[in-house]
Amino acid sequence: MKAYIVGNPTVDYIVTREGSSRRIGGPPYYMGLAFAALGLSPVAMGVVGPDEREFIEGELRRIGVEPRLIEGDATAAFELDYRSRPRRSRPLRRPSARISGAVEGPLVAVNPVFDEVGDVEIYADVSAVDLQGFIRSGREAPAADILHFSEDDAALDPRQLVKYNSKWRIAVYTLGGGGAYMAVDGRLYYAPSADLEVDDTTGSGDVFLAVFSARFLETGDAEEALCDASSYTAGYLLYRRVDRYRYDCAVSRRY
Questions:
Q1: What value, to the nearest 5°, has the Cα angle with vertex 76 and ends 70 and 80?
Q2: Rounded to 5 degrees, what are φ and ψ at 12?
Q3: Per-residue pLDDT tens for 176-202?
Q4: 86 upstream amide cis, omega within 30 of 0
Q5: pTM to 2 decimals?
Q6: Which of 243, 212, 207, 214 is nearest to 227 (CA)?
Q7: Among candidates 132, 128, 131, which has minimal Cα distance to 170?
Q8: CATH architecture classification, 2-253
Q9: DSSP β-ladder status, 10-16 and 19-25
Q10: Which residues of 186-201 are buried (b: 16+ CB within 10 A; e: fewer)?
Q11: Sign of torsion, CA 200 201 203 207?
């Protein structure tokens, strides 16, 4: 079963208290890791620059992602600084080309890193949107079944999350070690985190949304999907591979 990822691959410069590193990133990479680990066939739809195209496409294929990338004038690049909380994210460059057209499949995730999503039509059994790039660019996010954003993207009183249900049936707000809140049809739920001590959380939001949307597609159970996403994200942070970390994740209803 194919899972389509609409968003750009990136070159990330990661800064932590232990030092700095440069590596491939972005939703095609991290969501692709998660979809492939769950047995889906991920397809990446994004823009890449000519200098990095061969390397990035090779890395995506290596982890089981089919690249359907447009060659643009640059590859998106970010500096992610984890020496403060929340992290500081600084765009270094971004391509001018945008992704457009119809995307049709069982699962479609729209997850821009900035403003690369143009006029896209989504036809899916389950559709998901991550707000991160839309917040960065100031563009309006499309309606979908599932919405995700984190405390790195916006500060929010979790009780306000239910207002997003007017556009998205399920809205999920993740707070790292503070757990995750979920609004479904005007009802608010909470799942605790695994409470891990990790500095570099790059890609965790992408892994979370990939697992949540894949599990929701499979079961139709949002509460189960919430715990699965939290468990697999914890496993990714702990093991640096997408694997379940088992802990007592009991979803509770807040109102």
A1: 150
A2: -110, 135
A3: 899 999 999 999 999 999 989 888 899
A4: yes
A5: 0.95
A6: 212
A7: 128
A8: 3-Layer(aba) Sandwich (3.40)
A9: antiparallel
A10: eebbbbbbbeeeeebb
A11: positive
